[in-house]
Amino acid sequence: MHTPASETPILRAEHFSKYLGGRKILDDCSICMHPGDVKVLIGPSGAGKSTFLQCINCLLEPDEGEIWLGEKQINVKNSKELCYLRQHVGMIFQDFNLFDHLCAQDNVALALRKVRGMSKQDALKRAKEELARVGLADRASLFPAQLSGGQKQRVAIARALAMDPTVLLLDEPTSALDPELVGEVLTVIRDLASHGMPMIMVTHQMEFARAVATEILFMEQGQVIEHGAPDDLLAPGTISRTQDFCTRLCDLCSGDTGRIEE
Amino acid sequence: MNVFSAIIEALPYILEGTLVTILLVVGALSLGFCIGVPMAVGQVYAPMPIARLISLYVWFFRGVPVLLLLFLFYYGIFGLIGLEVSTIGASCLVLGMTSAAYQSQIFRGAILSLPAGQLKAGRALGMRDGQSIIHIILPQALRLSIPGWSNEYSILLKDSAMCFALGTPEIMARTHFVASRTYEHLPLYITAGLIYFAITFAGVSMLRRLERKVRIPGYNTSGM
User: Fold this and answer.
1) Residue A81 predicted with pLDDT over 70
2) Structural domain range at position B26
3) What would the pLDDT profile of B121-146 be if each residue is shown by its tens digit?
4) What are the angstrom distances between the C-alpha of B58 and each of A198, B9, B53, B54, B55?
5) pLDDT tens digits for B160-183?
6) Does B49 touch chain A if contact means CB atoms closer than 8 Å?
7) Which of A97, A126, A146, A155 to mutate to test binding with chain B, by most B CBs within 10 Å of its CB?
8) What total of structural domains would you count in chain B?
9) How many angstroms away from the CA of A250 is the closest CA of chain B?
10) Which residues of chain A does B219 touch, with a Cβ-Cβ cutoff of 8 Å?
11) At what angle do helices B138-159 and B185-213 cross, to 10 degrees?
């Protein structure tokens, strides 16, 4: 769709539509990922960003659309292919969704054992490595309720990375965090991006999006209405819906006491 | 006859009944657990027709008195299907099936109280729903079920006294038998009551201890 035809995309989601309660909340959205791509979905609340993201690994089943993993089209009605898809598409949630009854290490190890069929010993070893990678080697035996929000999200990232995903989906990974904890999570994500981990991220951290994104997709009313490199969409003086949205968002965040006009 | 000697004389006989009562309760609770957990999972996650069927089961066993169920199955249905069971076996089965209906609702409530994100997270890692339920949902739901389950234990224990109507030789039946022979009703029924009280207390404290033992670190069981 966008980039060179020479390379096979690692993931393609094409013409996704989704209806909820008779309303079309996702309208013909497509995304195509090549190695190293970091794509950021932005847009106003209710634009369908999270819906789109959750359709990609079929946590929400799209009503229309095709999903391709490399050369293989996934039939999401087939539970084996569905598990295969989800195994290769990692997901980070806004509210972490760590397994509350398992310590950090077991959170990471569970799917390694049950999905990958690794032995307990190997899975725990791998889990320790992944936790070390997000800077939590010394927290391996703590339970989710004993971790801070930022630490929880880093465990969630380690848990997703342990499955060696082809693409990582991040659904507002820092929105549920205290402001002073946002940094530690963004650092981990930035690090992943610089190591070429393909990611699709929904975020409101505009500065961050601008810094790491290879492409920004602006969504509104269930459609991708603009997309392009951050510099094209956000360069000063550009007139784009994205630019307009970001300006308003920045005004809000700058602590300006004046009222924001709609 | 002296009051105490009446109790002491009857005690071994009644205590033997205590073993029968404990057997009934343990058997019925286990059976109820084994049927109740899958029923709860089915009610929450299974497709409509199966969930409806389970609701029907729950509706029936909760809607009819235990005593009626005991008679219905022991004198009616078990004979009809050619199942030959002792009174103890029959009591155990009927109490177990009844308890399954109640237990399923305890577990269902616990499952529904978990955030939907737990199953989502399992799915997102490529786990099958069955795996997620066994390794993620149930370990958490069962922990949350312990307080409600200890209620079910104490109610079932006392419901087991109704098996006396089938002639099951448990505490109540034996006490009644001795009392009607010796006419020492008051001391004997007080004794039986104290035995029920002791078993209830012991079981409930054990469950409370279990609750603390399997507590997830970072959570507490006191509410403060």
Assistant:
1) yes
2) 20-169
3) 999 999 999 999 999 999 999 999 99
4) 49, 43, 9, 6, 5
5) 999 999 999 999 999 999 999 999
6) no
7) A97
8) 1
9) 31
10) 100, 145
11) 180
- Contact residues, chain A, for B131 at CB < 8 Å: 114-115
| Those residues with Cβ within 8 angstroms of residue A232's Cβ, 6 or more apart along the chain or in another chain | A238
Contact A140, A90 (CB under 8 A): no
The pLDDT tens digits of the residues spanning A192-248 come to 999 999 999 999 888 899 899 999 999 999 999 999 998 888 877 777 788 888 777
Chain B residues 189-208 with CB within 8 Å of chain A: none
- B135 close to A (CB below 8 A): yes
Domains of chain A (ranges; CATH) run 11-253 (3.40.50.300)
CB pairs < 8 Å spanning A and B: 79
Contact A155, A134 (CB under 8 A): yes
The total number of residues written for chain A in this structure: 262
Which chain A residues contact residue B143 at CB under 8 A?
101
Distance CA A55, CA A51 (A): 6
Residue A101 to residue B140: CA distance in whole angstroms: 6
CATH of the domain at B148: 1.10.3720.10
- A146 burial type by CB count under 10 A (0-12 exposed, 13-18 middle, 19+ buried): middle
Asked if B40 and B105 count as a contact pair (C-beta separation under 8 A), the reply is: yes
Tell me if chain B has a CB within 8 Å of the CB of A176. Answer: no
- pLDDT tier for residue B224 given thresholds of 50, 70 and 90: low
Contact at 8 Å (CB) between A111 and B126? yes
CB contact under 8 A, A146 and B218: yes
Residue of B nearest to A53 (CA): B124
